[in-house]
């Protein structure tokens, strides 16, 4: 997924444009400089292509003000992270010296730049864009973020500058595994152990890995791409600006992965941030494995692993389908089982069930337990078919989707899992109305 940063000097309308593209009011919009002090990101889509947009504080290249200097650093981080930069200028104010300085900074980035002239609210004002040719960074596109004018032409140009998908067919065949979790739980150490070499920097300083790093490997279980991601801390702990961009990259890594491995430090247990990040993978119905690392540091008896597993099952109750593995990346204990388990989960993630067998199972499930009344209506299932894999996706044709009770949907999902072994993978269920 491409990343697009909206940059420019203060008060040119970046947050207004961001909110318009995001489809909801996320950034604070106020008519004075310095209101957006942090970067905010959201997903959006144009011409069938999803991408992430980042709102940034205004750039004041020569300012000594502490807050403005920090905003400038954050904008520079956004520029480094982005694939495409939307450089926003003010069509009412006209070209300024600060615009020239920002343009000079952007030219040095060697990134694709789309020059956008905002606040062109009337057709008669469109000629205001021509003076911005003096910046020498391409054809200016006139828009009004507040009124939503000209956004289509602007987005056409943005999407046209997205980098080509560099994956080869061979890479596309690889099973993509994203290592996710808090800093310093051993993600890089595990990857290095699997690869048998010091591929990633390993340090006990949290935040050593600041971007998603890909490592391909092939063994008897198949071809894999291991994606090491930066650890995610609670927001109050995020001090360096660059770490906020690590969040964006981690979410993007989850989106392109087939399997997400949540790594937990056995000595610390599961934290709220673990729940949030693996919850994102769960919402996308990814394959999920929970790995407890540093198991060698735990004093054990014959019930330690069972008790630890039961505790995790309680705290991560929404991951009832995910397998658990206890390892030590340092000593190598059970690390050889990681890719074997990942291949097993991937097979389930990519599993297809024949329509006849599927409908027999659901028919038997309905005979054992009918749908409960919801708002005085009872849902009837006429037919079920699997329409996709990765994740397994099932469409239920019913008389009234609004009569579906969440507990009955969970019951149907459990029936699918019990009969077809979908261990480790999310399942997507779609209910559509169809006349009897």
Give the secondary structure arrangement, pairings included.
Blueprint: E1 2-7, H1 14-22, E2 40-46, E3 49-55, H2 66-81, E4 84-90, H3 97-109, E5 112-118, E6 141-142, H4 151-160, H5 169-173, E7 175-180, H6 187-195, E8 213-219, E9 222-228, H7 241-256, E10 259-265, H8 272-283, E11 287-293, H9 304-315, E12 324-326, H10 338-349, H11 355-368, E13 373-374, E14 377-378, E15 381-388, E16 393-398, H12 406-420, E17 428-433
Parallel strand pairs: 1-3, 1-4, 4-5, 5-6, 7-9, 7-10, 10-11, 11-12, 16-17
Antiparallel strand pairs: 2-3, 8-9, 13-14, 15-16
Helix pairs in contact: 2-7, 11-12
Task: Give structural attributes.
GTP-bd, 22% strand, alpha/beta, Rossmann fold, globular, KH_dom-like, GMP Synthetase, Chain A, domain 3, 436 residues
Q: Can you describe this structure in just a few lines?
A:
The chain is built from 12 helices and 17 strands. It has helices at residues 14-22, 66-81, 97-109, 151-160, 169-173, 187-195, 241-256, 272-283, 304-315, 338-349, 355-368, 406-420; strands spanning 2-7, 40-46, 49-55, 84-90, 112-118, 141-142, 175-180, 213-219, 222-228, 259-265, 287-293, 324-326, 373-374, 377-378, 381-388, 393-398, 428-433.
CATH class of the largest domain: Alpha Beta
* Overall pLDDT metric: 83
Helix/strand-derived class? Answer: alpha/beta
Work out the helicity level.
25-40%
Number of domains: 3
Query: How would a crystallographer describe the biggest sheet?
Result: 6 strands, mixed
Can you say what the CATH homologous superfamily of the largest domain is?
Answer: P-loop containing nucleotide triphosphate hydrolases
Could you state the order of secondary-structure elements as H and E?
Answer: EHEEHEHEEHHEHEEHEHEHEHHEEEEHE
Placed side by side, the strands forming the largest sheet appear as 2-3-1-4-5-6
The total of helices stands at 12
Low-confidence stretches: 27-39, 198-212, 234-243
Query: What is the alpha-carbon Rg in Å?
Result: 25 Å
Instruction: Calculate the terminal CA-CA distance, rounded to whole Å.
Output: 41 Å
Instruction: Tell me which CATH architecture of the largest domain applies here.
Output: 3-Layer(aba) Sandwich
Here the CATH topology of the largest domain equals Rossmann fold
Principal-axes shape call: globular
| Beta-strand percent range | 15-25%
* Tally of strands: 17
């Amino acid at each position: 997924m491409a990343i697009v940063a909206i940059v420019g000097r203060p008060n040119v309308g970046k947050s207004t444009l961001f909110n318009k593209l995001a489809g909801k009011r996320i950034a604070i919009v106020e008519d004075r400089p310095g209101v957006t002090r942090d970067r905010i990101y959201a997903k959006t889509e144009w011409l069938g292509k999803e991408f992430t947009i980042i709102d940034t504080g205004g750039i004041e290249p020569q300012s000594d003000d502490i807050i403005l200097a920090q905003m400038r650093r954050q904008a520079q981080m956004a520029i480094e992270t982005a694939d495409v930069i939307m450089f926003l200028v003010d069509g009412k104010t006209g070209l300024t010296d600060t615009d020239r300085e920002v343009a000079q900074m952007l030219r040095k980035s060697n990134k694709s730049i789309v020059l956008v002239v905002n606040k062109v609210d009337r057709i008669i004002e469109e000629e205001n864009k021509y003076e911005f040719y003096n910046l020498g960074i391409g054809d200016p596109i006139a828009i009004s973020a507040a009124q939503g004018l000209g956004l289509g032409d602007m987005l056409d140009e943005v999407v046209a500058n997205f980098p080509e998908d560099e994956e080869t067919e061979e890479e596309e065949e690889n099973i993509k595994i994203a290592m996710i979790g808090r800093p310093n739980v051993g993600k890089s150490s595990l990857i290095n152990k699997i690869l048998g070499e010091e591929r990633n920097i390993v340090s006990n300083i949290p935040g050593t890995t600041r971007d998603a790093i890909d490592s391909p490997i092939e063994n008897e279980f198949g071809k894999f791409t291991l994606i090491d991601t930066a650890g995610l801390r609670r927001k109050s702990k995020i001090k360096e600006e660059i770490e906020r961009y690590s969040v964006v990259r981690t979410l993007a890594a989850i989106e392109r992965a087939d399997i997400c491995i949540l790594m937990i430090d056995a000595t610390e247990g599961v934290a709220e941030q673990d729940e949030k990040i693996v919850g994102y993978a769960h919402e996308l119905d990814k394959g999920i494995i929970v790995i407890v690392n540093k198991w060698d540091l735990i004093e054990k008896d014959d019930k330690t692993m069972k008790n630890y597993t039961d505790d995790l099952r309680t705290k991560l109750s929404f991951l009832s389908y995910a397998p658990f593995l206890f390892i030590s990346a340092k000593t190598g204990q059970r690390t050889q089982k990681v890719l074997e388990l990942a291949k097993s989960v991937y097979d389930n993630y990519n599993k297809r069930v024949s329509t006849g067998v599927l409908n027999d199972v659901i028919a038997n499930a309905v005979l054992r337990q009918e749908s409960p009344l919801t708002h005085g209506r009872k849902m009837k299932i006429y037919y079920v078919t699997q329409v996709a894999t990765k994740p397994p996706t099932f469409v239920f044709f019913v008389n009234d989707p609004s009569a579906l009770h969440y507990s009955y949907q969970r019951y149907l999902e459990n029936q699918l899992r019990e009969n077809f072994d979908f261990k480790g993978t999310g399942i997507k269920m779609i209910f559509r109305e169809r006349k009897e």
